[in-house]
Amino acid sequence: MKRRVVIANKKIVRLNNEYTTQQLNQMQEVTHKNPKRRYLAMILIVIILVMMLPTINLIKSYQVLQSRRTLKIKSEKQSAQLDRQLAIKKANVDKLQDPTFIEKYARAKYLYSKDGEKVFPISELSDGGVTDKK
Q1: Bridge partners of 3?
Q2: Minimal CA–CA distance to 94: which of 130, 127, 124?
Q3: Which one of 32, 83, 117, 120 counts the least CB within 10 Å of its CB?
Q4: pLDDT digit string (tens) for 72-126?
Q5: Sign of the CA dihedral running 121, 126, 130, 133
């Protein structure tokens, strides 16, 4: 059962016997295994990509968390500063409720005086005791 098969384009002659068919089958098996490896590689790449998406999301969430923490710290500092300013303003309002303090303040700030009174301005007391310092 020896037949010769001629491949037209390459001018190769192949004997059609048991050994050559066995070799041909082995070569075909090897070539059929490669697509399985390709599919395995493609599946592996897809799995890696699917795992990367939650990781990227986690990193972004962590960055947002850190930015919010810094914003919270800044807000707390600003709140403390505003609380100090509010305390100073309340103290000034309490001082301005006292009529004697208002009289002293008008004399120091606007150089008002009673009749026959001499005013000597002192630069350190020019605010009349009302403080705007933090």
Answers
A1: 16
A2: 130
A3: 120
A4: 999 999 999 999 999 999 998 998 899 888 888 887 777 777 778 776 767 766 5
A5: negative
93: Cα within 13 Å, side-chain hemisphere: 6
| Burial (0-12, 13-18, 19+ Cβ within 10 Å), 95 | middle
Question: Cβ distance 92 to 102 under 8 Å?
Answer: no
Classify 78 as helix, strand or coil: helix
Rg (CA), the chain: 47
**In the numeric block, which tokens belong to residue 50?**
């699917």
How does residue 127 score in pLDDT terms, banded at 50, 70 and 90?
A: low
The confidence score (pLDDT) of residue 103 equals 84
DSSP secondary-structure letter at 130?
-
The model's pTM is 0.49
CA distance 106 to 51: 74
Instruction: Measure the CA–CA gap between 133 and 119, rounded to whole angstroms.
Output: 26
